[in-house]
Design brief:
With 208 residues, the protein is α/β, with parallel strands linked by helices. 38% of the residues lie in helices and 20% in strands.
């Protein structure tokens, strides 16, 4: 597998932990990160020693979504014809997450908006820190909610709530995340990593 620049990957006790590692950019998803994430997910899925996957972020954010500055300065990315998904591009990520043979837990350590929000939704289980904030402010920048969120969000919170979250772009606090079924658990920030790992280990004990 390739050496990653924008991801940290740790494997222990049949659990693979993938961390977005662009803390200075709030773990925004750029071309490099999305290519690495596709590669990492596919190779972890083939790794018979791994039973469960955790996705989280380094620093204060889970992911602030697509790297807009990169999008604007790169004429190749921002031209319409190049929005058609290629194998290494962003739209494949939620599809890969849904089709993986292993359970994936999103450990939401901070802000998860836009593509970060959608990646969390594509995971099987979501554990949020009390410091997490989630939101789908796609409309503010004139985008369709992408990344599989139009499919996943209504299945978690219902059509009415999904419409409200998408149309208003409001940020969702941890208490409401729990109430509406957006996340499975909310835990204190300092316990998030350990709590998620213990759950992953419990799942990893079962036969594949």
């Amino acid at each position: 597998s390739m050496a990653y620049k924008e991801l940290l990957i740790k494997k222990k006790e049949a659990v693979a932990i993938i961390k977005f590692n662009r803390p200075g950019q709030m773990n925004a998803v750029n071309t490099q990160l999305s290519g690495e994430l596709v590669d990492a997910l596919l190779s972890i899925d083939r790794d018979t020693g791994i039973k469960v996957v955790i996705i989280t972020g380094v620093g204060h954010a889970f992911s602030a979504g697509i790297d807009i500055p990169e999008l604007l300065e790169n004429p190749f990315l921002s031209s319409f014809e190049n929005k058609v998904p290629t194998q290494m591009s962003v739209p494949w990520i939620p599809l890969i997450l849904r089709q993986m043979k292993k359970p994936v837990i999103a450990s939401i350590n901070g802000v998860a908006v836009g593509a970060g929000f959608s990646i969390a939704l594509a995971c099987d289980i979501r554990i949020a820190s009390e410091k997490a904030k989630m939101g789908a402010p796609f409309g503010r920048v004139g985008l369709m909610p992408e990344f599989g969120s139009t499919y996943n969000l209504p299945r978690l919170v219902g059509i009415g709530k999904a419409c409200e979250l998408i149309f208003t772009g409001d940020m969702i606090e941890p208490k409401e995340m729990m109430e509406i079924g957006l996340v499975n658990r909310v835990v204190p920030a300092e316990k998030l990593e350990e709590f998620t790992f213990q759950m992953a280990k419990k799942i990893a004990k079962w036969p594949a």
